[in-house]
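User: Here's a protein and a ligand (zinc ion). What would the complex look like?
Assistant: Let me lay out the input and then the predicted complex.
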Amino acid sequence: MLGELTSEQAMPGNPNRWTALLAVLAISAAAATAAGPAARPDAPTSQAVLDRRLDLYNGTFRDILFVQLPGGEDWLESGRAFEELLGGDDATNLDYEHPPDLREDLLTASVHRVLFMLRHNASSSALFRVGEASAATRTHVCVITLDPQGVAQDDVHSTAHLLGLSPELLAEIPPEMRLDRLDFLRFLVDHEVFHCIDAHYLGPVPMSDREHWGRYMLYCNENGADAYAAAMHLAEHGERTRFLRNVTRIRALCLFNADPEHATCRAIRAVERLDDQALTGLTPRELLAVADRIRDHVVPDYGRYLGYRASACRVMQDIGIAVPAADEGLCHAAEPDPAVYRELMESFRKSHAELFGQIPEPQAREPE
Ligand SMILES: [Zn+2]
């Protein structure tokens, strides 16, 4: 099928920039996807779990169509389905506040991002108001890129989705501390759905001329998304679970991935501290409000975020994790905060000891 892409298909009568982009990516993908993996035995289970979750959201938020698109070997087909859902150049990305004259540029960038996530089989979500020619039955579409068979193949793969360690290190994690694959799949869908309903009901990422605003908002929204997914989990289970303890422990190791924006332990613990009955019977819309309050409570203001980020960089440096070169400016935008450094280091060492049976020794002293 990939080899049959013609220039006419790539540039139809009403060409637009992202259709052309899809065509360019398709040509380079053909070789890489010629021999795709065989279907995995658990495929019906994980896909059914995901579909039921989306049914819940499609039944709850009636002006948004929640759609999952598979990536990997199916990414090009998904890209075409995505194109039909968007319905043309008059679609609008709603994840980010923007002036009208930047609408097309943002659309191009966000379409590019969705295609990138599909091609790399990564999990993500994006919210669009659809164009006139859209095949969607609703005015808004929440596009979720997610590979349920890959994510929920087994508990090791689920754990690896949050913790980019080698298979040998992941195998050292005791089985009871790995992420249950189907609980994690639901958690992941809820997390991605949060980003769409957050943008739609509570507002998009606001504009700012602050240098590191994008990363700050990522930190805010990752905390909100994990708070929401934890709240959904707790509302359904009615009690604190091993799964939530495991997610929290693994999120504490996000510095292993040089990814301090996913340090969401405080948000998940804040959900766990709510009265056991507080969440029971609440609707997803009400749980969105709960997650929003928790996000406001646990995420510091922009200035203190920079102090948190400098502290996180120092911890990474001291445990031997390379800080990406692109983050150097962010690491030095403020002084590390000794109290935040201690909290991050202690949380990291405790989780590391629980998962791997040993406490890593810091290689340097904490900041003065
Ligand atoms: Zn997220």
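Summary: Residues 174 and 239 are 23 Å apart (CA to CA).
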